[in-house]
Each structure stands twice: as structure tokens, then as C-alpha cells.
Amino acid sequence: MPNNETDPEAAPKPRGRPRDPERYRRILEAARRHFYAHGLERASVDAIAAEAGVSKMTVYSHFGSKEGLFEAEVRDRTERVVGGVAGAEALDPQQPKKALLAIGEQFLVLAREDEALGQFRSLYGAAGVQPEACRAFYRQGADRLIGDVAAYLRRADAAGTLKVRHPRQAADLFLAMFLGDGHIRGLLMLEMPDAAENKALLREAVRVFMAGYATGS
Q1: What would the pLDDT profile of 26-59 be if each residue is shown by its tens digit?
Q2: Which CATH number fits domain 21-69: 1.10.10.60, 3.40.1010.10, 1.20.58.60, 1.10.540.10?
Q3: How far apart are CA 66 and CA 78, in angstroms?
């Protein structure tokens, strides 16, 4: 008998735009808390549905499976980095330093969140055991975010404000500067960098990137 928690064929497929965005948001927020507290494998769709105030089948009608819900939650979190910056002008290709500061600030918030760190920890343990969950996390997390930043860098290159020969590689390098000591400390549940340390890291990362990619550098 198929397991409705993990078998996408056992439940309705996710649909397009949610008919009830507020209910959809409640499910995502409940899922975020449960995935953080229990990891993907032990998180219960029944418990997520109960906390969100919906039926289990409502969860499946939106997301198709527990893995689909996990992927949607990761995608929602990732969208906040580029989509959540303050105003469209923050991503103006004519102002790359300002745009990179905005992207870097949002990414630091994401990378330092307890929920995101918890997902990293649980998936490191699931690597090889839950390959589909790991692929979903990569596809909707790192892969998508690097692609979004690369798209901005292409626009800046076309505008002549940056000189970027390999946009995806450059995006990867930029984001990787935020995944050093502070990120490792977070994964190990040690004392995290304070706001001043994060601000200094952000400014230095943007300075180094601009030194390498600004026109005339």
C-alpha cells in the first residue's frame, strides 16, 4: 500500500495559483516549523495540517506530497532573498553595489535563520537516504538563488557597470562569501556572529566582489 506521506502518486497533484492564499501561507508556515523541529523524515503531514487548521487532503491538494510541501517551503524561503529586497531600484543594474548589498543582506538573514540551519542539518543526515529531498532542496535553494543572482549580473554586465564573463560562477562566488565561519558556527549550534560582524562581512564581501568585477577593475 502506498505511503501518503511520501508517495506523490498517492495524493492529488499540486495545482497552480492557490485559491486561498491565506490558507496556503498558513500551511507553509506550519510546515516550516515542523521541518525545523523534526526534519523532513519525521515531520508529519497530519501534524502540519492540524496546526494550519486544514485537512490532510487540503495539504495534498496544494502540494501533492510531503516532499512537494518541503520543496514549496524551500522555494518560498529562497524567493525572499532576491524578491524581498527593498524596492525594484535595489536591483537596478546601474547601481550594482547597492543591489549586491541588498541581496547579500537578505541572503545573510536567510543563511542565519534557525529554520534554514535546521534544514541543512537534517538534509546532511539524509544525504544518500532521501535523494529526492536533497535534490529539491538544491533545486529550489542554492540552484535557484545562484540563477537569480546570475540573471542580475548579466543585466549589470549588459549595462556596462560590471564586467562578468561567467555570471553563474560569479554569483556562486559572491554567495559563497557568506557561508564561511558564521555559517559553520550556526550548523554546529555554536555562538552566532552578532549584527556588527554580519554588517562587516556584508560590506567586505561586496567590496571584494566589486574589486574583481567592476568595470575597469
Answers
A1: 999 999 888 878 877 788 999 999 999 999 999 9
A2: 1.10.10.60
A3: 18
